[in-house]
Every structure is written in C-alpha cells, then in structure tokens.
Write a structure and sequence with these properties.
The complex is a heterodimer. By secondary structure, chain A is an alpha+beta fold. Chain A contains 23 helices and 25 strands. In chain A, the strands form 8 sheets. In chain A, strands 2, 3, 4, 5, 12, 20 and 21 form a 7-stranded mixed beta sheet that branches. In chain A, strands 14-13-25-24-23 form a 5-stranded antiparallel beta sheet, with helices on both faces. In chain A, a hairpin with a 5-residue loop joins strand 9 and strand 10 (about 230-240). In chain A, helix 16 (about 385-395) crosses helix 19 (about 440-450). The longest helix of chain A has about 35 residues, at about 10-45. Chain A is elongated. Chain A starts with a helix and ends in a 6-residue tail after the last helix. The relative contact order of chain A is 0.11. Chain B is mostly helical. Chain B has helices at about 1-5, 15-20, 25-45, 45-70, 70-75, 80-95, 115-135, 140-160, 165-180, 185-195, 200-205, 210-220, 230-240, 250-255, 265-300, 305-330, 345-365, and strands spanning about 10, 100, 105-110, 110-115, 365. In chain B, the strands form 2 sheets. A 3-stranded antiparallel beta sheet of chain B has the order 2-3-4. In chain B, strands 1-5 form a two-stranded antiparallel ribbon. In chain B, a hairpin with a 2-residue loop joins strand 2 and strand 3 (about 105-110). In chain B, helix 3 (about 25-45) runs antiparallel to helix 15 and helix 6 (about 80-95) runs antiparallel to helix 7 (about 115-135). The radius of gyration of chain B is 21 Å and the shape is globular. Classes of the chains: A alpha+beta, B mainly alpha. At the A-B interface, helix 2 and helix 3 of A face helix 9, helix 13, helix 14, helix 15 and helix 16 of B.
Chain lengths: ~625, ~375
Amino acid sequence: MPILSTLKDPHKESKLYLSRVLIATGVILVGTLILISRLVYFQIIQHHQYALLSRNNQLKITPIPPTRGLIYDRFGEVLATNVPSFSLEMIRHKIANIADTLTELKTLITITPAQEQAFYKQLRYTRNRESVPIRLKLTELEIARFSLNKHRFPGIEVVAHPIRHYPFHALFAHVLGYIGPLNDQDLSNVNKVKYRGTRHIGKTGLEKFYETTLHGDVGYQHIETDAHGHVVRVQGTTPPVPGNNLILGIDLALQSAAFKAMNHLKGAVVALDPQTGDILAMVSTPTFDPNAFTQGIDVASYDALQHAPDRPLFNRVINGLYPPASTVKPLVGLQGLATKQINSQTTLYDPGWFQLNEEGRKYRDWKQSGHGHVNLEKALAQSCDTYFFALAQKLGGSALATVYQQFGLGQMTGIDFPRESSGLIPTEAWKQQTKKEYWYPGDTLNMGIGQGFMLSTPLQIAQVAAILANRGTYFAPRLVIATASPDNGDFTATESPPAMAINQFKPEQWAAVIEGMRKTVLPGGTAQKMGQGLKYSVAAKTGTAQVFNLKTDQKYEADKLKAHLRDHSWFMGFAPIDNPKIALAILVENKYETSAADVARRILDHFFSDPHHNP
Amino acid sequence: MLKAHQQYVMNKPGFLSKYRLDGWLLLNIFVLMCVGCLVLYSAKQDWLLVERQMLRFGMATLLMIGVAQIPPPLLRPFAPWIYGFGVTLLACVLLLGDVSKGAQRWLNLGILRFQPAEILKIAVPLFLAHYLSARELPPKSSTTCIALAFIALPAFLVAKQPDLGTAILIGSTGFVTLFFAGISYRFLSGLLGVGLSALPILWYFMHDYQRQRVLTLLNPEADPLGTGYHIIQSKIAIGSGGLFGRGWLQGTQSQLDFLPERSTDFIFAVLGEEFGLIGVLLLLLTYLLLLGRGFWISIQAADSFSRLLAGSITSALFIYIFVNIGMVTGLLPVVGVPLPLMSYGGSSMVTLMTSFGILMSIATHKRLLPG
C-alpha cells in the first residue's frame, strides 16, 4: 500500500468519485421515477379496474341446488323421497399429493379400487376449488372414525347430501325409473345454468319424463371468500326453487297386489281407470332395486342386470312387444258387425280348421276337435280361431288394420313416460318394404287372430280394454294426475287428456261383443276357471301368443317345451261391466301353470275388496 | 489496536458519536423498521411473527452498532479473507447444502442456517474496494479485468445454486464498485454490450422455472393460477389501494390470503393496498433519504477505500429496493429479492444492518487531517 500511495492523487480521486456519485444519484432518481410512474399508473389511472378485480376476487357466487320433488301415489303414500347421505369429499387444490392422501384415508375408510377409479375420473372434470366425492354413503362408524382423525386431513370433508330414496325398492322400478349422476351428455340436454350445483338427473321412467317438474330451479349464495374458498361471510342468498311433487294415479295397494300376483312370473300388468285414463297399477317383472342406481352403480352390478337372461331392466309394459293374439278378436267382431259381414246371430261350423279354398292349406284352430257351431258370442267366449279366420278373410287386411289403428294399436298411446314403443300393425306396403314379400291371404288370417307380424305392448292392450269398457270413449293413459307445490302443498291437477271416441259402432254392436267377453269368464269360456265365484261382473278376453310356430301336425305340450319357448298368456278385460272402474291388461311370458287370467283374478279381487275403490 | 483507534476523532461529541452512530441513518432505519412491523402485522395478523421480526431487528441493531465500532482501516486487511471465506462457503453449499424449494442455498451449521450468498453481498464490494483503492484510480484495463474475474467467480457460484436473482445482485454490486472507482465510459459501454449480447446464452443456461418467470413477466395472464398468480394478485392489491389505500388491516387482497408471499418478498403490495400511493411515496422518500445520507457519508469519507465501499453499499441498497418493487409491480421477473428492512426474514437483515454498521463506521471514523 505505501508503495502505491505515491502514485495516487487523493484530490483527483475524490473529484472523480464525486462525479460518479452525481451520475449514480441521477440513475437512482430516474429509477425511482420509473417506479413511481408505474405505481401512479396502477393506483391512480387503473385504480377502478383493479378495485373491481379485487372485489371480484373475494366475491363468489355459489349455486345452491334445489330439492328434488317427491313422488306420491294417489292416496298420498311416498314413493320417492330424499334422505340425507354422508359422503367423503376432497377439495382438490388443498391436497398436495392426492395419491398419498388416499392411501392414508384407506387406513380409516374402505375405498374399493372401483370407487378410487370413479374418483379419479370425476377429478378430471372438476374445477380446482370444487369438491370431489371419494366415498359415498358413509356409515356412522366411518364418520366417527374420520372425525377423530380430521386434523390429519385438511381439505377432506364429510359432506351431507340429500340422496334419492325409493322406499318400496323394486316395486316401482319400472314406473318411477331412477336418477343417476349427471354426466356430460345429460348436461348437453338441459339448461346448464339451472343445473349448476346439481349432481343427479332422472335417467329413466317418470324421473326422466318429469325431470323439469321435479328438478326445480337453482338458487345462489353470494359469498365473500378468501383465496382458499373459505366462506368469510354470506352477503346474500337467492333461495333455490324446490322441484314440484308428483302425484300418481297409481294405488300403492293395487300395485303391491299386482306385484304379488306376478310373483315369480315374467310379464306385465297394467290397470287403468277407464273413466279417466289414469294408470292404477303398472308392473313389469322381473324387476330391480332403483336405489342401486342413485349414487352411480358399479360396472359389475350393472353388467349383471343388463345381461341377466330375464332382462330385469326391460320395461315390459311400455317396451315389451308381443303378438296381441286373441285379445284383438273383439275388435274384429265389432268391425264385422259394423260392416254387416256378420250379425250377432251369424253362425259358422268349425271343424277344427279353416281353409281358404277346397285344396288349400288347413289353418288350424287352437282346439283340434273344433268348436262346432259358433256365433259371435261363443266365438269370443271360446276364442274360436276358425270363426275369426273366416271373418278376417271377409273383412280384408286393410279393414283390419284400420280398426286396430282406431283402437290405438301400432302407435304410441301418448302416456307420460319416456321411450314408449309403438308396436306394429302389418300392411301390404309394410311387408313389401321390409320383408320384400307379397301379402298372402294367410297374412290376413293371422292378422284376424292377432298373430303373424302383429306386435303390441301390454299398455296398448290395456287401452283396448279401456276403450271397450267405455264403449268407444277413451283417454290417453297417464301416470301423473297432479303436481303439488312443495311450499304450500297446492295441487295442480295435470290437464286431463281430451276424451277421444270411436263413433262408428252402434250400442248394440258394443253390447254384442261385450256379451261375448262376459261369457269368457263363465263356464265354457276360456277364462272359466278365473270366473268361478266372482262377486263382480267381468268382461274379458284371453289370448295365447305363440313364441314359435308349431308344425302343422305338431301338438303343443307346455311341459315338454323349454321354458323360454312356451307361449305367452294374455288377459284383457274390464270390470264391472255396467260401470267399469278398472280396465286390465296382463301378459305372462312363457306361461306354465299360472295364466294371465289367474293373475287378473287376484288383482280384481283385491281391487273390489278395497274400500278405496268401492265407496 | 487502541493506538490505531485514537488516530481518529469524533467530529461532534455527543451520545450518538460516542457510540459511532449516525443519527440520520439511524432515524431512517428506525422509521423503516416500525413501518415494516406495522405492515408485517397486517400481512399475517400474527403477533408472534412480529415479535420474532422485532427480536431480529434488535439483534441486527446490536450487530450494526458492533460493526460501527470497527474503524475502516482495521476492517480493510480482512477484506480478502472475508471474500475468500465467502467463496469457499459457496463452494461448500454447492457440494453439501440443504435443498430448499428446489435450490441449494442454505448451509446448515447446526444452530444456524444461513445463505452464504448473503456474505458475498458485502464481501464483493468490500474486497473490490480494497483491491481497487490500492491501485491507481481510475483503474487500468488489467486491474479492471482482474476485478471482473473477482466479481464473476462468486456470481457464477451463486447462479449455480441456482439463484440467478442473487447472482445478478452480487454481480451488479461489484459492477457499481468498479463504476465508482472510475472505470472509463468506453469500457462501461463495452461491458454493457457484452452483457446484453450474453442474454441469449444466459437464457440457454437458465433452469425451466427461471425461464418460466421471465415468460410470466412478459405475459402474466397466460398462466393465472400458476406462475402468473403472484404478479396478477400483487398488481390487483397495489392497484386497488388507490391514492389513500384501503386502510391498515383493511386490504382484502392481503387479509383474505389472495396475495402470496405477502410477509416476505411481496410485502410492498400489502403496503400499496392498505396505504395507497401516499404510503408508497412516503416509503420511497424514506429510502431516498437513506440513500442520500449514504452517498453524503461516502463523499465525506476519509480515503478511497471507505469512499468506494460506502458508495457501493449505498447503491446496492437501491438495487435491492428497485428490483423488489420492480418485481412486485410486474416490471421485473420474480427473482425472490426481499424489500430492505420491510420483508420478514433474517438473512438479508443481517447483511443490511452490517452494511449500515460499515456506513456508520465510515461516517464516524474520519482522520483529523486529510491525507
């Protein structure tokens, strides 16, 4: 240092330094001015915009989903309700390591691989600050166990949600349908705004058809939150509008009786009030428990239901397509009377078969020995095929198609239910188009006894029964008879469907056919067993729908056939005859011992012993 | 030792001078500390935190007073040793440092965990002031080149940690010392040119997170929940403060947790939100007074070494302030530089108060006669 100091000039150095400090001061002042201008820009010029952003930051609008409407039977029994259920949920952005958290949770609460999978799937569709369910339907023990360890799991919460509950389980599965978790496809069909916060939607049945009525309208909560979404205070609430309740025309007791009567049978029961079109009972068996679907069913259980040979998920009332068989004979008879091809006394000899001409093929009656001399009444009571073969031939295929259409076959009834099947009335044009075949005279004969290509649903046959009961007047069948506001319980009856009428038949023509139907349940009739000891009058028509065609000389022996090849058994009718209160259609698939008529007897006996229906 | 001490006299006898303290510096530091604690409380509403910070202030003040007692000529011979020690520690950190938040910056000495990079913030100007003032001023080209190497070595080691922000701070502090030493403007512009043309190369060597920060600076809205979140939220906080601010403890950005890192690097945004432009300008004014006093002390300093050291330390303080506020207002990338005397944290406070101690020592140890 001392050596160098001789070279140094302190005065010059200090002058040099001073000039540099001045420059540095200048730089600092410029830098400070840059900062200040930046701050003035934010705090003065852009202040309003940032103030607004700051306000938006803290204010959030969260949707409050509405309570879903309940469903009642006609006497006020609850068929679908909401019960609280507790689920374990994760607020995603609060969790550092999702996999680790799940592993730790599993030490307390069972989480199956399928549930874990479902969780991850939903996680992908969920925004950061919303919660994702990990486990649904926690047991009380699980809730207690988690609560003790809650401090270990920030961001994991037990949340109470109302879930749909069907207290009668399988009994109303094919009426109510079920709700299930809302998915993207569902969302594209609804007003997304109204479904903010909603997690479930009607998937089938009335839950689907009346989705809009049941769902209600979303409410909002204006809340001030911190950066983590914690509620600091609630600033205002727009309450949700709960969904309306539905009141069905169905009578729980009758439905139960029908269900019991169908015990172990496959098939369908529809009971209508012919005077209103209200459906009193609607059963399709076998069935399933819709409660399994409300929280999302697992794949294995769903596959099992889907692929079960008995098809429990299949709604036979609405979508089951069967040949109407002999249940259409009253209609053919009516048309015969109206066109004067026959009168009530016209007699025909039945040797056990019908031939179009001398050398022609023999169309066999179901009774090999034949019915002998038959008039319309006897033909109906004994369901004589030969009689109706002959009448069908006289009327012709298009006249048959017309009368069937008038009675609602081959078209949807217009019931308040989703995805109704329309059935089929074959015509020449239809056969040309789909089968690329000509219409043979034999097709007309088959059509006359409701076989061949004809297909109809049990609901359609019930409607036929109702039309016969009312002698021509009818209403589209309906399940829901009223909606009720959940707030004040005010009922709004759903608009009654307009009465429709078939006018071309005269009262005596109706009477003649109905007399034949009355005799069906009397000794000698096809439903004589069912008619023994009846305390009320019944007009009915039975039917046997073939599942496969016997060869000409083959004999039908039910006990020698495989179960699924046995004939289906129909019952169609109404009671009492003079002032009908109930119209019925019953189909028993692959009938063995219990026929549709047997089922009908049990249902009617219940109906007429129930004081509700017999004041 | 005593003898050396007695070479110096106090310019004005009094309580402050007796303890080698500078009243102006002390007043400003005290004001900043108070404001710092006030804002810190608002940021976290946690008295414990404020108490810890006050305790640190107290201890750091004692350290400052201690440093102020060391006359610059006594400090000077230690400059190369401190520098060497710091560089060695940096090398150690690279080899055995704790990994915190993905970067090795901390050295764990059992009870004490600290960032050796902090030492270099003082060691580099100290050593350069020593090195340059021992030679002809303005420095010759060869001297300048060697000095640049002395700057580059620690800057490179810190950048390797990786802590690019601190590396740039250390580098620029050394550069400022060179500037005060009188390096020619031609050289200066040459260096700037080299520096600017090195930017693409720097980009190539940057870590992904560092690149992300630079990209975020250019367009914070591109990733509003990720890296852009800090800048967006801090802009909202500052902007919503307006002219008068929303009042102490009233800022929703700060109180409702929207503002991240608000007790440390982003504490300026809390101040901006709650005290508005007025509060921010008063803070800047206090800083400017502090800086002005620092330069005044440097001009009055006894020799070139003290002069260069005081000037560099003062300028470094401005660099920290500018980088921090620039970062919080979205002018510069988020590099993690605390706001002097305001941000919560110990490491940087120790460095700062040591600097102030050195400034006070320079201010109060003057030779009676020049030369």
